[in-house]
Amino acid sequence: MKKFQTTCPYCGTGCNIDLFVENNKIVKAEPTKEHHVNDGELCLKGLYGWEYVHSPRRLTKPMIRKKNGEFSKDGDLVEVSFDEAYDFVAQRMKSTVEKYGADSLMGFSSARCSNEDNYTFQKLFRTQGTNNIDHCARL
Ligand code: SF4
């Protein structure tokens, strides 16, 4: 079993967690001992909120709403490749910034992403010229 130290993403407190991984699955979480933020304590979310990571109901492939093979807000969700999804998002972000300016973009991230994922996400938006970033833990 391997141990990975990370920061709990569920709220802004920043508790440090040791995640224990076996066969590529998180099997338990413990508070990082003697850490200056949480000093060996975690709330229930930090201790037990990790089952979703391996849930079979989790989306693992990108999807785009399409009608007759083209994007449509009224279309059905169609599974696409990551390359197609990245191209679609990049093109939509670019055309939106060109038409309305960088502050017309807004990124809303998730507590169900790792701290490292959230860092990368905010970087993506800031490099487009906007600070319009938020996270569901603030709701
Ligand atoms: S363990 Fe609880 S208090 Fe600490 S960061 Fe996570 S959600 Fe916040």
Automatic annotation (TrEMBL):
Gene Ontology cellular component annotations, sorted alphabetically: membrane
Highest taxon in the source lineage: Bacteria
Domain 4Fe-4S Mo/W bis-MGD-type: 1-57
UniProt-recorded Gene Ontology molecular function terms: 4 iron, 4 sulfur cluster binding; metal ion binding; NADH dehydrogenase activity
SMART domains for the chain: Molybdop_Fe4S4 (SM00926)
Keyword Iron: yes
PROSITE patterns registered for this protein in UniProt: 4FE4S_MOW_BIS_MGD, MOLYBDOPTERIN_PROK_1
Entry's Gene Ontology BP terms: respiratory electron transport chain
Keywords, alphabetical: 4Fe-4S, Iron, Iron-sulfur, Metal-binding, Oxidoreductase
PANTHER family: FORMATE DEHYDROGENASE H, RESPIRATORY NITRATE REDUCTASE
The protein's name in its UniProt record: 4Fe-4S Mo/W bis-MGD-type domain-containing protein
Naturally occurring in which organism (per UniProt): Arcobacter arenosus
Lineage: Bacteria, Pseudomonadati, Campylobacterota, Epsilonproteobacteria, Campylobacterales
